[in-house]
Design goal:
By secondary structure, this protein is mostly helical. The protein has a domain at 229-365. Helices cover 59% and strands 3% of the residues. It has helices at residues 2-27, 30-46, 65-70, 73-83, 94-103, 108-116, 118-129, 139-156, 210-223, 230-244, 263-266, 270-276, 278-283, 292-307, 313-333, 336-369; strands at 161-165, 191-196. A two-stranded antiparallel sheet has the order 1-2. Helix 5 packs across helix 6 (108-116) and helix 15 packs antiparallel against helix 16 (336-369). Residues 1-7, 9-26, 258-262 and 274-282 have low confidence and may be disordered.
Length: 384
Amino acid sequence: MDMNVKQNEQQHHSTKSPSSSSSTTTDHDPMQSWWESVSKARSTILSLSSIISSFDSSLADSDRPALSLLSSFDAYSLLSSALSAPSSGSGTDPLCHWLYDTYLSSDPHLRLIVISLLPLIINIYLSRVHSSNSVPSLSGFEAVLLALYSSETKSRAGKPLLVQIPDLSQPSLYHTPRNKPSLPDHGSRPSVGVLSLPLEPQVAVKSTKRPCIVGVALDCYFKQISQMPTWSKVDFCQFATAWAGQDCCCVHEFDQNGNGNEVVEEMGGSMNDKFDDPIKLESKGARIPLPWEMLQPMLRILGHCLLGPLNSQDVKDAASVAVRCLYARGSHDLVPQAILATRSLIQLDKRARQAANAAAAANASSNANMPSKAKKPEILLVSK
């Protein structure tokens, strides 16, 4: 009797095992999960058509719809126009709801779309907050910023961001010989710097916590800056120029190089264009307070825009203008950290431009000295 029961149980398990294994393979099928993510991204992007009437819904037909939207300048322009509308940013703004829900999705490519719009969102939000006019409700923008802040708070798990500063009295890995010096050891330890204190959970954007929340959002932008499109980087640099709000002579303090030429001339006069057209500068933002919680991630972003090897020349020129304006702002506000950081970036920018000009001149001279191949004599065939 017991044997029959065991056999029945074995038969029962054997009949169940194929179905359970098939369901397991279905759950972990990479093709199925890929198709589900693509379908979800397409439905998310198609929902923009109900918010922006002129939105190109054909972007959702791509195999990678989120990346297609991220790399579309026309779509970025439409989203920028919608976010810049006077009624944008309220708690009932459907585009803010879309940005909030999209960032909370599990698709990392969809999250990149929201991050690429952060410079524009932060610029509009801070410009309206610090304007003298009566400000409408900006709870929609604040909800998006709080979504990024909450996500970063969760990922940091209550720990600060630290950076280890090497002890210059100790030999590095690249010293030759690599033997330790025979100096008495006084118990020197590598010093540790604090980039950011532990984040506290926030349920609303208070005026005292606003710089920290915006700074965390800028830090999220910096972490993904290598995947940001060119126009998003250029917009950020122009916003940073407007936020600095300094067009005095301090801006050109370091522009005189050894050859007597202006770095501004090397940039094709783009710097003068920014300062000679106040209407253009005002349309890109306004002068705002720049506490260190915001200025620190801003300088990291500008450092990438200046020195990133894959950045276009437009990005580098816009970042060069922004760094000089922030140096002038730091000099007037007497902020030592800002002065030191911006001076370093300006010097690195000058050296990079001088090296590029020297390489271009050497390449041109080598091409000029290269002997050209002698042409073969022409042979004319004459018929008799």
